[in-house]
Write a structure and sequence with these properties.
- The protein is 36% helix and 16% strand.
- The protein has helices at 47-59, 77-80, 83-90, 98-109, 112-125, 130-137, 228-242, 258-279, 286-292, 304-323; strands at residues 4-6, 11-17, 25-31, 38-40, 69-71, 93-97, 154-156, 169-173, 182-186, 199-203, 246-249, 327-329, 338-340.
- It is globular.
- Bound molecules: zinc ion (ZN) (2 copies).
- The site of one zinc ion has 6 residues, from helix 2.
Length: 341
């Protein structure tokens, strides 16, 4: 049974399931335009998810074939997975920010072996033990999700209105969760006249009850020392200042009072950074830091793939602390350890 939600003012959403994932579903928004619905994100590429999207659109008295365009908040497979199928069935355009489009292009070109070698080198440099890195060095046949995502055919330009006939939808670049994450600001009065400025489709950037994963921007071909957590915190503040009347996120549920949710998150991240500094009283590699950080379960019960994500998150926090001058790399060590200053 597909669930759909009415948000008023020609905006509806469909809960498209994500298989075997505690998040449960992606909220795919359908914004009515003079030329047919425009979707904000499309959902995970899975037969059941595709069926749910089709059933949801039917429940909203439209269909995949009538979709006019697809606006993607970021390249992750729970958002961009079905874009190719939607385009095939409808002829719709697919729009994405250039930085995430670059990731899609690379993912389509990168050979699996190249990716595994990159991950092995990265984890070794972060201080991962041999038994963790070893499986990445043994070649195996496995398909990784999101390795053949659809190439977008339009670019989302920050600050500009998207081409939505009869609607005002402006792109807001909110890097952090991914380098090309965007929020979409519907610059129209809230249908229930709530105070604030329009409505914001927030993707994974701003969610009512969870914090998005902030890791390093994984890119085998880029050696720039980016600061995703710094980007994320800046983007959060900008969204807070925008003060939308309502936030329409890609997971969980719609909510109001964005500024206080932003404040909560800023306080959460500041407390987390301060907590990490006390762990860094002794020099730690990113792996050792990840082992000691607080997660939703003890380290020895965190599965393999999630440990890689956790280490990436530890590295993003270290990057931030180093940029702020609150931690530094210990000279000469291999793998590199970090210590509070
Ligand atoms: Zn995401
Ligand atoms: Zn997501």
């Amino acid at each position: 049974m597909t669930r759909t939600f009415e948000h008023g003012g020609g905006v509806r959403s469909i809960a498209v399931p994500i298989p075997d994932n505690p998040l449960g579903h992606t909220l795919v928004y359908a914004v009515d335009t003079d030329r047919g619905p425009v979707l904000i994100d499309t959902g995970w590429d899975d037969p059941a998810s595709w069926d749910a999207l089709g059933a949801g659109l039917a429940a909203l008295d439209t269909s995949v074939a009538e979709v006019h365009g697809v606006v993607i908040t970021h390249h992750h497979p729970d958002h961009h997975g079905l874009s190719g199928r939607v385009r095939e069935a409808s002829g719709a355009w697919v729009a994405m920010h250039a930085a995430d489009a670059a990731i899609v292009r690379r993912a389509r070109q990168t050979r699996h072996e190249h990716w595994y070698a990159y991950m092995a080198a990265k984890l070794t440099a972060a201080g991962a033990p041999d038994d963790h890195v070893a499986p990445l060095r043994t070649p195996r046949r496995r398909t990784l999700p999101g390795l053949s995502p659809a190439l977008p055919d339009r670019e989302i330009v920050p600050g500009e209105l998207l081409d939505l006939p009869g609607r005002r939808l402006r792109a807001l670049w909110t890097p952090g969760h991914t380098p090309g994450h965007v929020c979409l600001h519907l610059e129209e009065a809230h249908p229930a006249h709530l105070p604030g400025h329009g409505r914001l489709f927030s993707g994974d950037h701003l969610l009512p009850g969870i914090t998005p994963h902030i890791g390093l921007y994984e890119d085998p071909d880029d050696t720039t020392a980016t600061d995703p957590l710094g980007d994320y915190l800046d983007s959060l503040e900008r969204v807070g200042r925008l003060g939308p009347a309502e936030v329409l996120p890609a997971h969980q549920h719609a909510f109001t009072d964005a500024p206080s949710r932003v404040r909560e998150l800023l306080i959460h991240h500041e407390a987390r950074l301060t907590g990490l500094l006390s762990l860094l009283a002794e020099p730690l590699t990113p792996w050792q830091l990840a082992e000691r950080m607080e997660w939703n379960r003890p380290w020895d019960r965190i599965p393999y793939g999630s440990r890689n994500i956790a280490v990436s998150e530890a590295e993003a926090h270290l990057r931030r602390l180093v940029k702020l001058g609150r931690a530094e790399a210990v000279a000469g060590g291999e793998p590199v350890a970090y210590v509070a200053v």
